[in-house]
Structures
1.
Amino acid sequence: MVKVTLIPGDGIGPEVAYATRDVIDATGAQIEWEEVNAGETVYKEKGTFIPDELIESINKNRIAFKGPITTPVGKGFKSINVTLRQKYKTYANVRPVKSIPGVKSPFNNIDLVIMRENTEDLYAGIEHEVTEGVTEAIKVITEEASTKIAEFAFKYAIENGRKKVTAVHKANIMKITDGLFIRCARKVAEKYPQIEYEEVIVDNMCMQLVMYPEKYDVLVLPNLYGDIVSDLCAGLVGGLGLVPGANIGDDIGIFEAVHGSAPDIAGQNLANPIACILSGAMLLDYIGEKEKAQMVRKAVWAVMEEGKVKTRDLGGTASTKEITAEICRQISLQK
Ligand code: NAD
């Protein structure tokens, strides 16, 4: 039995996190879920966003599955997501973006992976008011974190049969910070001559991605560009309801979808659970249950290809619960 901390989260979080738990359980994977919540919901009950029980649970289990957590805008405290990523040094945020059959989108041939540095950059949250009407944020880029994410990207490329790594930056303007980021990436690239390496400036990257996304394979980016480019890429394959993610550190994995808590549709049984469910498949891969991970992906693909059960974001009318049940049914057919 592998113990996994389950954080339901806020907004649509519980709906999609429980859907994922049900799908993973349907594969027969030997997982014991230890549920401890964090976020706005917990704050209202306990006066803290990250309760001690959660820290204890993650410290012990080293694997967590997380629903999205709401971060109120501009209220002067740091995002819970960012806090967890920094606390557990999950330096790599891995986001595979792949076209799914049966999903209406401008492209059907996308298969790329975003490697977003996950601990620093403007996301370090170091900002202050200099004087009234003047504010300042500090962009932190270190050799250590930049080298680690580049190493991670190249190792991933080798282990997963990928051919090319593209480092994304704005070093023409951010000469010192992004300059360091690409110097580190270049140095790492020299150790992997079998993988093609290229550099693209982030604004051009956005245009390239919306015109020729099939040209890209593994993208490695500093935190903020990674955040923005992830949503852009999600849009290319049918939206945020479909793109999974994992926060990986040296001995820890926290799995969560790219999307947020979607307050506009929360509690209505409307959310698409596929992004979370595919993050669950990444969790299964991480714990070595590769066959069960494939079962989950195959089931999702089958449901999408058939096209009868789709949530509203994909033009269908199915509820979160209906599509979850259909994915579980597809898993049972594979047994
Ligand atoms: P969001 O991703 O929650 O929603 C953006 C749009 O996509 C909304 O229209 C929403 O309805 C839709 N959407 C998102 N996920 C969907 C799904 N699974 N199925 C169907 N539609 C879906 O982004 P936002 O509105 O900018 O952020 C809401 C909150 O989530 C904010 O507090 C933000 O800070 C937080 N957030 C958390 C995480 C995280 O926990 N990892 C990530 C991003 C945003």
Note: The first helix runs from residue 13 to 26.
2.
Amino acid sequence: MATIGFIGLGNMGGPMLANLVRAGHQVTAYDLSEAARDAGKAAGGAIAAGAGDVSKGAEIVITMLPAGRHVLSVYQDPTGPLHQAAPGTLFIDCSTIDVTSARSAHELARRANMLSLDAPVSGGVGGATAGTLTFMVGGAPEAFARGESVLANMGKKIVHCGGDGAGQAAKICNNMLLGISMIATGEAFALGERLGLTHQALFDVISTASGQCWSVTSYCPVPGPVPASPANNDYKPGFAAELMLKDLSLALEAAQSTATDCALGKHAQEIYARFNTAGHAGEDFSAVIRDVRARSGG
Ligand code: NAD
């Protein structure tokens, strides 16, 4: 079992820490928020006085923070974990951040003689709690070999996608496709409603025909056909619309920096931006079907 430092005990980090403790690891954690620290303590973590202190004696330091600037501020802090850990410590950033910041984090770790991985997740709070996350991992093979078994304590699928930043790259490509496919699914069901089709009849066709996709078969945005989807629970997330907008914005940033023409990704970003501004940021992203109906006159 490993000695692990953990920084960022929010909606995702809290339950991830709990699974590490359950697996028998010794975890020392820190969060800026007192409530999150209390939750981390209740989950069995020891709480450190600051982010740098979590790395004392740690073999692995995990971060689960909101965005690239938070991760880099922790990595660059002269009193932070990168400067207090023993050489050769493995740093794993599980946050969803932009590819450029992820590569900078790897570079900072390398200069401090540490090993590093970017390992963003999919599966949401439900997956974090159940320990069934998918990890998309970037970094050197020796870093992956060290980190894989610990990631397996928090997830069920661990994919080594390539070198530095490859995990973040895979995550934003997947989520751009998901954002687009959910809007397209919303349009298909809204059109079906106008044409007099029942939700179940349309689901029975699409789920076994050439339009089939995860947004239909596992996360159908209308109540009924997939009982566990957020549509059956007044669109409680799940995966909030504000997080989908964040991921689409990261994808579009990457598209711009690589001169890739992602016309549908850009349109999806505009639709989610409008949906968020209209007061739906906290709803599940599949509630975007409401935007389709609103644009169609209600
Ligand atoms: P969150 O806002 O609930 O938690 C982030 C935590 O980081 C907060 O508790 C905050 O106090 C803490 N924090 C911020 N800066 C810090 C610092 N410098 N030092 C210590 N603590 C600090 O966010 P979350 O939902 O747990 O998401 C975390 C990451 O996971 C994000 O990058 C998000 O995009 C990604 N993600 C979230 C979901 C989801 O469904 N919530 C799904 C997949 C990926």
Note: The first helix runs from residue 13 to 22.
